[in-house]
Structure formats: structure tokens, C-alpha cells
Amino acid sequence: MLQQFIVTALKVILLLLIAAVSVDLPKAAIAAVQPSSLPSFQLPINVEKQTTVRIDGDSSMAVINQLLKEEYQRQFPGTQVEIAAEGTDIALQKLLKNEIDLAAIGRPLTVEEKAKGLIEIPLSDERIAVVVGHNNPFKGNLTVEQFVKIVRGEITDWAEVGGKPGAIRLIDRPAISDTRIALSRYGIFQNGGFSTGANAVQVETDDTATMIQQLGSDGIGYAIASQLVNQDKARIVKLVVMHEALPDDPLYPYAQPRGYAYKQSPDLAASSFLGVATAGIGQAAIDMAKTAEAQAVVEALNPLSKIGITKIADSDTSAYAQTFKAIPYWLRLVLPLGLLGLILQAILKWQERKPVTTSSTITESLSDRSSTLEEVHLSVIRI
Asked: Which CATH superfamily is domain 35-125+258-320 in?
């Protein structure tokens, strides 16, 4: 029973260690998307008044642009951020001509674009989800190959993928959509390109709610996964890679990075804005933007429903998260180990003081302590 007690204690310590490390996982995930050669941008202390930051780019970055604009202008009164959404290609051309300071992009830069001196800094690594309408009778999964064949019009009936007989309609996004472009650049689409068949219906605007409204009971489409939260008009289809995978699975095949492109040696306007975007306050704004995007989809699909969007707090995270982040990283790892030492010391003292008892008493005592620790273990998991 003593061994069981120690094992349970070790489980508690392991959970605390995982909690200590997991706080930095979102930043680590973002860093994994960014090449190590990219320079870092510091959050400036002051920015000169009358500074203007000019941003243009893809519509998928519109909400992120807006909330980062508000945060930047709040941090540095007297500055101004001008934003537009003319599309990534136009924005990159304007960036090369020095007509804007930053291009908001929803796809990676091409080799040719990088050769012209452009640099990208991804801020959010999204997943591209495959969706069907909520009333679609198809409840199965698709292999990546099957989805490609549906896109190209080579599979045109749901019965061909295990569903009930019925025509398949592909609800496609505009050709300039960064979500579409990001999807088309995956290797499986390279042989033959992202060409669609006669069963495709292309929406005019690169808007997730519009795409969902067109799905009906026979359509299939694709969207940024984080924009599908809380809505009930579309259902995500699992894709089979090595196993069934939803967008939150690391093995899920389709991703879309969103971020900014800038020229080498960026000016003060660009570098100061990127300093805000990559800091904690910027990441909080980006997280809020994702929530706002999802809620906008819900409201577009349900015009009578109004879901309030909480204003971004002055701090970049909750008070708890701020306090936790203030603790040095090494100390987060040492504290659980210190706790383990105290627990083991308490066990030894308890063994020294414990009076001689019968075997049944020992069993009951340790059983009670084990139950208590199991409750602590469950409480930690709930937290």
C-alpha cells in the first residue's frame, strides 16, 4: 500500500509538471511555425505620435487586423492604423512598392515572393476543416484521396464514399481565397492542381457563413476550423490519414498559417506593430479575434441570435495566467519536485511515528489515504 501511495503522489507531481510546461505550449506551437532565422520584434515602450501603420491583405485576416489595430492604438495614443482587405496578391504588390507597411496574409509566401525580399511572420497556425451541412445524411469519414476526387469531380455521388445515393455538390471558395490557395498547395493536389469538376458551385465572397448557407443536404465545403465553433448548421467530416482525424489532431493533413509579410529591414511602423502582434497582448487579441470570427459565423447563420463578444481586457491574459507567467520557467519545474520531497519526508515521519497496529488497520489507513489522493488527483485533472 505504501508503494501505491508513492505512485499516486508521483502522478500528482507529474500533473503539476505537465501544467507548468503546458502554459507555454501555445507560444511553442507558434514558434514551431516560424523559421528560426526570423528576427524577433520587441514590444516598444513608446511610439512617436502621428505614426501611421498601413496594412492590406486577405479578408481572412480582417478581424485579427481590427483587434490588433485597436490594441496598438490603445498602447500608443496618437498613432493610427489603416487597414484594407484587397487580397493577398494585391497587398504583396503594394508592399513591394512601399505603398503599405505590412501585408496581412492567410497563406505561406511562395519561393518567388521570398526571392523579392519579402519575409513572413506567421502568428496563428489554423486547420482547414472539411464540412457538410447539418442535415446531410452522410455520417461517415473520408480519406484524403476521396476528398481530392470530390473536389475534382471524379466522385460525384455520396454512395461512392459509403453514404446514401445522391449527388454531391462542392461548395468552393473564390479563386483568390487564401484558404483555397493554402489547401491547393498540398502535395496531393499538385498532380492535376486544384481543379474542380462540374459538380462545383463557387461562392462569390470568401466567407465561411456564406459557404455554410450553400451546403444544404448534399454539399461539401471547407473552412478555417476555428470559425466553426458554436454553430449548428455544418458538421466537420473526419479525414482518414493513418487514422480518423479531426482538425485538432496533430496528424490532421490540412493547415493554413495566418500572419504578416514585411520587407527586409522594416521601418518603425511595421516593426512596432509586429512587436504588439507577437507580444502577449497581441496574442490575446488574436485569440479574441478567433472567438469573434466564430461568433460572426453563428450570427450570420442565425440572424436573430446575438452573442455578446467580451471586450479585450487591458491585460493580455487573466490575473491567474499573469501571476503564473511571472514565475520563472525553471522555478515552475522545481516547485513540483520540492513538493515531492515534502511528501516523501512526510511519509517517512509518518512511518516513524506510526504505532504498531494490526495488518487490517494498516490496510484501512493506507486505503483511506489512497482514496484521498485519488480525489486530489481528480481535482487536479478537473483544474
From this structure: Periplasmic binding protein-like II (3.40.190.10)
Instruction: For residue 208, give the nearest of 248, 244, 240, 256 by alpha carbon.
Output: 256
Compute the distance between CA of residue 111 and CA of residue 307 in angstroms, rounded to an integer: 42
**306 φ, ψ (degrees, to nearest 5):** -125, 115
Lowest-confidence region among 145-149, 250-254, 258-262: 250-254
User: What residues does each domain of the chain span?
Assistant: 2-17+327-382, 35-125+258-320, 127-255
| Mean pLDDT, residues 23-38 taken together | 37
Residue-by-residue DSSP string for 39-98 = PP----S---TT-EEEEEE-GGGHHHHHHHHHHHHHHSTT-EEEE--S-HHHHHHHHHTT
Cell numbers for 298: 453563428
DSSP state letters, 24-44: THHHHHHHHHS-TTSPP----
Q: Please name the residues in contact with 13: beta carbons below 8 A apart, sequence gap of 6 or more.
A: 336, 337, 339, 340, 343
Name the residue among 233, 227, 269, 202 with its Cα closest to residue 53. Answer: 269
User: Is residue 63 within 8 Å of 106, Cβ to Cβ?
Assistant: no
Average pLDDT on 251-275 reads 84
What was the pLDDT predicted at 218? 95
Inter-residue contact 127 to 224 (CB < 8 Å): yes
Supply the pLDDT for residue 253: 53
Which tens digit of pLDDT belongs to each residue from 88-114? 999 999 999 999 999 999 888 999 999
CA dihedral in degrees (250, 255, 258, 262; nearest 10)?
A: 100
Percent of the chain at pLDDT exceeding 70: 64
CATH 3.40.190.10 assigned to 127-255:
yes
Lowest mean pLDDT segment, chosen from 33-47, 100-114, 190-204: 33-47
Residue 251, pLDDT > 60, answer no
127-255 shares the fold of 35-125+258-320: yes
